[in-house]
Write a structure and sequence with these properties.
The complex is a heterodimer of chains A (403) and B (52).
Chain A lengths: L7 E2 L4 E3 L2 E3 L4 E2 L2 E2 L4 E3 L2 E3 L5 E3 L7 H9 L9 E4 L4 H4 L2 H8 L3 E5 H11 L6 E3 L4 E3 L4 E6 L9 E5 L4 E3 L20 H16 L3 H14 L5 E3 L10 H13 L5 E7 L4 H15 L3 E6 L5 H9 L3 E6 L1 E2 L2 E2 L1 H13 L5 E8 L4 H12 L3 E2 L4 E4 L4 H24 L1
Parallel strand pairs in A: 8-9, 9-10, 10-11, 15-16, 17-18, 17-19, 19-22, 22-23, 22-24
Antiparallel strand pairs in A: 1-2, 2-7, 3-6, 4-5, 7-8, 12-13, 13-14, 14-15, 20-21
Chain B lengths: L3 E3 L5 E2 L35 E3 L1
């Protein structure tokens, strides 16, 4: 009988044995309309090794794919590159089932797995730069703390010139295609970007350091195998350059106008600001939190040079949709932004003040005075909004020419 | 004595607690931590920290 779920050959010695999650639509607050994959890999070395596991409900799918290549009880080593439950979910069960000789994780990975699963299994901590012989092949571990968890690490397989990068270079995209060259470029670019924006952005400084660390090893890398989405075998340079660009967060000629409205007044102000920016040649992401999801806002902010926040006032606070997205964006720590705040209010108007405080906390340089309008904006008020757009556009131009 | 916060992961170094796993006794001021002391959560170096 043929396995319905089979492994996919990556190289002569490495197989993808992960799982495809067609139905997942929310990843701890990050919306994933294209589902995802949990990638696990089998290294057919003298000591057969499994790199990462999958989310718990997909255990049988992974085991079936492994079985299409080898009896799982033949696996001698398991390496956990990342403790998050979408990769470690069935790890402890699988360890109990197949009884590998050894299980490895980073020092913090060992602690994290213990605190997540409270298992009795021994997991051996590996150090940054440590090597592991698989007999005819060798693994080298590189700690990549905070890309994107403290336990995260890369594993490099020298003989196949392959880097197992856990979440780095990943994307949430459920497909039957397994490789980058099999998918449309625009899809890869969008999904890689939104993944970076929602998951990796706060750790941009570490991304740049880590890319430097990898370059310094002189590792030959022909394939990057992440834990989500397609495997990079053709366009490694392209995705690495994108990561460098996103991590550098240089000022761009793009403004995100992010707002929520109650009775369309703040919306009218947002539109006036956007029209003005566009006329000044600035690329605009107009994001209404009445309609968009927070992770779409993050995607727009990724390559923005300006963040302009707008909100009505509800019961002495900014609107809850804005509280949601500003909390989310604050945590993502986008850098090098200029901004401003605006909004309509009925009588107290704390909304705009709340937004000013958020911008300050996010270290966004306030480049124009806030615009607050009582009730519905008249022509004069809309002109002031229009001028705000012009001011931001001029400031962006100045920053770009300075760079 | 001031608390210091890791700019990378948010870990708070509290001098009243020290960092026992890292061999740092209670009552050690941040300034007196060895130069090669690293954040116990994410491994960031001392210069990534800022006072609370």
């Amino acid at each position: 009988m043929k396995n319905i779920y089979s492994a996919v050959r990556v190289t002569d010695k490495v197989y993808w044995v992960g799982a495809i999650d067609w139905g997942i639509r929310d990843f701890h607050g990050y919306t994933t309309p294209q589902g995802s994959t949990y990638n696990a890999y089998l290294i057919m070395a003298d000591e057969v090794t499994l790199i990462d596991a999958v989310k718990a409900p997909f255990k049988e799918e992974m085991l079936s794919r492994i079985k299409s290549v080898i009896d799982p009880s033949q696996i001698k080593y398991i390496v956990s590159n990342h403790s998050e439950m979408d990769h470690s979910g069935c790890l402890i069960e699988v360890v109990d089932l197949i009884k590998p000789r050894k299980v490895f994780a980073s020092a913090i990975g060992v602690k994290t797995l213990k605190e997540l699963y409270h298992g009795q299994q021994e997991i051996i901590p590996v150090k940054d730069g440590e090597t592991l012989s698989l007999g005819n092949m060798n693994l080298t571990f590189m700690e990549t703390r905070m890309i994107h968890w403290p336990d995260s690490m890369f594993t490099y397989l020298a003989e196949e010139e392959l880097l197992f990068s856990q979440d780095a270079f990943g994307m949430h995209l459920a497909t039957l295609e397994r490789f980058d060259d099999e998918l449309p470029q625009s899809l890869l670019e969008y999904e890689a970007a939104t993944y970076y924006a929602n998951i990796v952005l706060p750790y941009s400084a570490i991304v740049l350091k880590t890319l430097g660390k990898v370059t310094a090893t002189n590792w030959k890398i022909k394939i990057i195998a992440p834990d989500h989405g397609p495997i990079w075998r053709k366009q490694l340079g392209w995705i690495i350059d994108l990561y460098k660009k996103w991590a550098a967060q240089k000022p761009t000629n793009k403004a995100v106008v992010l707002y929520a409205t109650m009775w369309h007044s703040t919306e009218k102000m947002a539109r006036a600001i956007s029209e003005s920016l566009a006329e000044a040649g600035v690329k605009v992401g107009l994001v209404s939190m009445n309609d968009f999801h927070r992770s779409q806002a993050a995607y727009e902010v990724l390559d923005a040079g300006a963040l302009i926040l707008g909100s009505s006032t509800l019961n002495n606070n900014m609107l809850p949709q804005m509280a949601d997205v500003t909390t989310y964006l604050r945590g993502l720590k986008p850098a090098n932004l200029i901004g401003a705040a605006f909004g309509s209010f009925g009588w107290s108007g704390e909304g705009v003040r709340d937004l000013e405080a958020v911008l300050k906390e996010m270290k966004v340089e306030i480049a124009a005075p806030s615009v607050s309008v009582r009730n519905a904006p008249n022509e004069g008020a809309l002109q002031i909004c229009y001028d705000l757009g012009k001011t931001i556009a001029a400031e962006l131009k100045k920053r770009l020419s300075a760079n | 004595m001031k608390k210091y916060i890791c700019g990378i992961c948010g870990y708070v170094y509290d001098p009243d607690k020290g960092d026992p796993d890292g061999g740092i006794a209670r009552g050690t001021a941040f300034e007196d931590l060895p130069d090669d002391w690293a954040c116990p959560v994410c491994g960031a170096s001392k210069d990534e920290f800022a006072p609370e």
